[in-house]
Design brief:
CATH topology: TIM Barrel
Number of domains: 1
Order of helices and strands: EHEHEHEHHEHEHEHE
Radius of gyration: 16 Å
CATH architecture: Alpha-Beta Barrel
Shape: globular
Helix content: 25-40%
Number of strands: 8
Largest sheet: 8 strands, parallel
Number of helices: 8
Length: 246
Amino acid sequence: MAGIDRSIDLNADVGESFGRWQLGDDSAMMPSLTSANVACGFHAGDALTLRRTVNEAAENSVTVGAQVSYRDLAGFGRREMEVEPDELAADVLYQIGALEGLCRTAGTAVRYVKPHGALYHRTLKDPVQAGALVAAVVDYDRSLPIMTMAGGEVETAARTAGLRVILEGFADRAYDEHGRLVPRTQEGALLTDPSAVAGQAIRLATSGSIHSLCLHGDTPGAPLLARSVRAALEESGFDVRAFTSA
């Protein structure tokens, strides 16, 4: 492993339950994580769910990130939408601010921003949408990093604006020949076998090109996957820790 950064962050999407609709098992996920991408109410997460989630993150010394989305509760933020840049920037600001308020009551804070779902993929290819996301982060707090995949428009916009970029890989998703995620509508897009997920995590971590590995809280068996990935990383000599302090 010579020449490879032996530290790696492990993040997951959490806080995505809504009212009586329960998605995933965040309590079981938290002990394995170092960073938590917490929903902000636009694609998932009601106020009580989000408050409980940031409390659990704080109790487990897990760094909190704001996972911002299009305003799309019905579609879980996975439907591409046409939103004017000024409206998108305002929506992102609104979401960060809401989560920040809940974090303050838990003794923690929003430490980074990550887009969710359709917004995530749109900002990889659309410089206008990427620019609106970055502009919102700059206006709110330019010390906040943006988490994304490498090579997208949002990485370019963020670096141009002087923001820190956290590059991530996905342990529980299949990649296509272009290094992008296989759409969820295609067979095999989601990896659920613990050995396969742990193996992909190791391959991504040893590539030396990413800072963080992502899992999804709504993936079947997500807590087991998180434990398997963390154990595999530690057994391979990686220091699993947050890229920023909790």
